[in-house]
Amino acid sequence: MNVLRIRREQQLSQEQLSLRTKLTRAYLSGIEAGTRNPTVDVLARLAAALDVGVEDLVKAP
């Protein structure tokens, strides 16, 4: 997952991304740490909030 890298590149906090996606910070933290597996819906919400494609979130860095 590239959520953490992209979020940091865009200088967003977890709180800011949480507000944009309506996901909890704890859930986002789990996704970034690799301990949670997001659904397709969550991937779409993250991609929209970060203004990237879903493929950018899941492709190898």
From TrEMBL:
<keyword id="KW-0238">DNA-binding</keyword>
<dbReference type="Pfam" id="PF01381">
    <property type="entry name" value="HTH_3"/>
</dbReference>
<dbReference type="InterPro" id="IPR001387">
    <property type="entry name" value="Cro/C1-type_HTH"/>
</dbReference>
<dbReference type="InterPro" id="IPR010982">
    <property type="entry name" value="Lambda_DNA-bd_dom_sf"/>
</dbReference>
<dbReference type="InterPro" id="IPR050807">
    <property type="entry name" value="TransReg_Diox_bact_type"/>
</dbReference>
<protein>
    <submittedName>
        <fullName>Helix-turn-helix transcriptional regulator</fullName>
    </submittedName>
</protein>
<feature type="domain" description="HTH cro/C1-type">
    <location>
        <begin position="3"/>
        <end position="57"/>
    </location>
</feature>
